Amino acid sequence: MDEATLAENFADSAYHCEHHNMDLNSVGKFGLSTLPREHGFKVVLTGEGSDEHFSGYPFFLQDMLREPDLATPDSALSKDDELRERYREMAQKGLGEVMLARAGAFRHRPLGDEAFRDLNGARLLDALQLWQPMLGVFAPWVQERWPGTSVQLALANQMPPAAKEKMATKWHPLHTSHYLWIRTMLANNLLTCLGDRTEMAHSIEARPPFLDHVLSEYVNALPPSVKWAYTPDAEERNRLPWAGGNTKAGNTKAVTTFFSEKWILREAGKPYITKELYERKKHPYVAPNRWPKDGPLHKKLREICTEEAVGKLGFVDWEVVKGALDRAFGEDGDPMAFRILLVVGGWVSIGQRFGVKRAEPKAETNGILNGKV
């Protein structure tokens, strides 16, 4: 799929997904779903749920390392708290470097530890907020009505009290992370703009076997260490990431080298898959975030994100969008500016297709997002 195809399908993808997405991967999935239809297939199997159940994402690792896995008391990470903590610090630092510096994720101001305390310190909150645009993208009246809004606290407030009780008293931090991700990103993003809606746009039924309820119930009872397994070889054991001559501390790849994500799933599939696939590290399904100036995507987003169109939304700051249009493209393009355009471009496309009325300030909306109502 080339840039021109992504540009051509952008608005249609947003329309069928019915919500914004900060990445073009949804447009890619939208285009991909045309293939089975062209070849006469009506049903496909998809992999949604495997990363959530078996811990495939690198940002799960920091919560995996917050506590020992009591199901494996003799493992190195259970016996050596200092070793585990060093890995945890590196995983947390590396996540910030990758997501913020290279991926262009959205930067939110830290607003205290209340949300973390409410969810037993789950560090996944750091990652969850990176997918949502910061308050500065919104119109001044929105910022004035909800000053100091905390995305983290809004997410924490959504969680049921019964789940919070289990986070505090029963669940390992890794499983708390899984729960938070499933309740937020999987349900609201991955199963929509990377799942059901992109496929049903072309009348394709996608069936995700990893979300089968029997499998889900079984996997929920598995200990953390068979999901993110600590698997350094003999050479790696003697050459830890922070040791002299090894890869730089803070590099996520340096940390994940010592672990196998989705380990038990790899072992179950080992007799049936190639060695290359068995040993392959997780590579997220994301699109590039740097594109040439005046290319198809630049032209398409300029066409969509006009001052008039953004003004009709009513809740977005045009000056922010204008600046993003100037900075997002070219060899030195700003990845976060590009993601702002994808989000706003999605809103504009949805608003135009569905005839959404312009957002206007109302007194009764004050405080809802800040956990006051």
UniProtKB/TrEMBL annotation:
GO cellular component, one term: cytosol
Keyword ATP-binding: yes
GO molecular function: asparagine synthase (glutamine-hydrolyzing) activity; ATP binding
Highest taxon above the source species: Eukaryota
GO biological process, one term: asparagine biosynthetic process
Residue span, Asparagine synthetase domain: 3-330
Record keywords, A-Z: ATP-binding, Nucleotide-binding
PANTHER family linked: ASPARAGINE SYNTHETASE, ASPARAGINE SYNTHETASE (EUROFUNG)
Name assigned to this protein: Asparagine synthetase domain-containing protein
Species the sequence originates in: Thermothelomyces thermophilus (strain ATCC 42464 / BCRC 31852 / DSM 1799) (Sporotrichum thermophile)
